[in-house]
Design a protein that fits this description.
globular, mainly beta
Length: 104
């Protein structure tokens, strides 16, 4: 799903479709950092690595670098095609503009 080395944490962060967010540090210590209650359709770190956006079939969730929820917005649940589709998250280069979402 998403795999990113986060400098501040000195860890590899894996975001899995199952909802699990796993970190692996330089000493190869594996830790379950967070768990989303739903299947993850897309995930993307901001360019500054200060925020992680997670898209599920029902919500767009903004997490900080320690995986604490900062904001959660519902997705229009009348559009049932979102559940089964792939989603893409794009950040602006400065990472300050809220990310844009695209569903193929």
């Amino acid at each position: 799903m998403d795999c990113n080395f986060v400098q501040e944490q000195q860890s590899l962060v894996l975001v899995l479709r199952t909802g699990a967010i796993i970190t692996i540090d330089a000493n190869r210590k594996v830790e379950a950092a967070a768990e989303m209650p739903e299947r993850i359709l897309a995930a993307r770190w901001s360019p500054s690595e200060e925020n992680l956006v997670i898209v599920t079939g029902k919500f767009v969730v903004l997490l900080d670098a320690q995986f604490n929820p900062q904001k959660e917005d519902p997705i229009d649940d009348e559009d049932e095609s979102i559940e089964a589709s792939e989603a893409e998250v794009s950040w602006s280069a400065d990472g300050k503009v809220p990310p844009s979402l695209r569903y193929p």
